[in-house]
Amino acid sequence: MSAIAGIFNYGSADTRRAHDEGISLMGSLSRYPADDVRMWSNGRLFLGCHAQWVTPESIGEILPWYDGQRGLAITADVILDNREELANQLGVPLAELAELPDARLLLLAYAKWGEEMPRHLIGDFAFAIWDESEETLFGARDFTGNRTLYYNDSGARFAFCTTIAPLLPLDGVGDKLNEAWIAEYLASPSRLETVDASSTVFGRVKQLPPSHCFSIRGGNLRLNRYVTFERASTLKLSSDKAYQEAFFGGVRKGGRQSIADQQGSGVLLERGDSIRERSQVWRQENCGEGIRCCIPTAPYRWSPEGTGRPKAGLRTSVR
After folding, report:
1. pTM value?
2. What pLDDT, in 10s, does the model give residues 198-232?
3. Domain hosting residue 100, numbered range
4. Residue 158 and residue 249 share a domain
5. Does residue 292 sit in the same domain as residue 211?
6. Which of 54, 110, 241, 309 is the most buried (most CB within 10 A)?
7. Three-state secondary structure of the chain
């Protein structure tokens, strides 16, 4: 995944401060590997991206990107799963889609739907878009929260970043702990989220909750939930076979979209997953390729904190 950062001095005429604090944010991200690092600024606003080129269409992508014709700038950490559907809705020829990065699709979607655009997106994303004509900074986080976006709003400056640590050294932020968050965690350490979905372990840093968007216009920060669970429409087909074909068609489509990358693909199969269907999709999409399978053996130990040492206990077989 990529890392993004930004500073918006909406309550100050100091054009140098946004640049200097933005440089500080990007410097803190240098510990992470990246294929490209770029920054963009217009005075009061700074956008940065510590980019990793994961998908084929992301190779060589320039982020942040400024569209002078539309007066829009974007920085994004995004992998879209419904690219073809969006292309059809946005009038993008499929022949051009393979060369169009996901962030450009986001800009086209914003140009068409405005702040309603996150409702049309399927995938993993966190992004910020600057709209010159509306003098608005708009951003969103994906439905399931697979991408993160942390922020601090001081009342005159809005700072955001993919990770928390780069925000802490900024003026007015600091590392003062959020005692309410800690107390809630200690009372129920198995819970992944707190009652206040925007709170974090640090008192002056919040997170944009999953399925939420933000906008800053006229000095006012506004957060909205852009999608909620709704009753799905009933699918009515003529036979059991038709239902079966529709189901596996959806599995194949989702499989193709979720395993697209530029360096080869892999599938993590776990208990509870539809293993046979997912692995068949992978094999069909990689027809003719050798399939390398890794299975855990002693002394492998799964760790919920991600601290296990899987390489020490994986036996590899080639099929």
Report:
1. 0.79
2. 999 999 999 999 999 999 999 999 999 998 766 66
3. 3-225
4. no
5. no
6. 110
7. CCEEEEEECCCCCCHHHHHHHHHHHHHHHHHCCCCEEEEEECCCEEEEEEECCCCHHHCCCCCCEEECCCCEEEEEEEEECCHHHHHHHHCCCHHHHCCCCHHHHHHHHHHHHHHHHHHHCCEEEEEEEEECCCCEEEEEECCCCCCCCEEEECCCCEEEECCCHHHCCCCCCCCCECHHHHHHHHHCCCCCCCCCCCCCCECCCEECCCCEEEEEECCEEEEEECCCCCCCCCCCCCCHHHHHHHHHHHHHHHHHHHCCCCCCCCCCCCCCCCHHHHHHHHHHHCCCCCCEEEEECCCCCCCCCCCCCHHHHEEEEEC
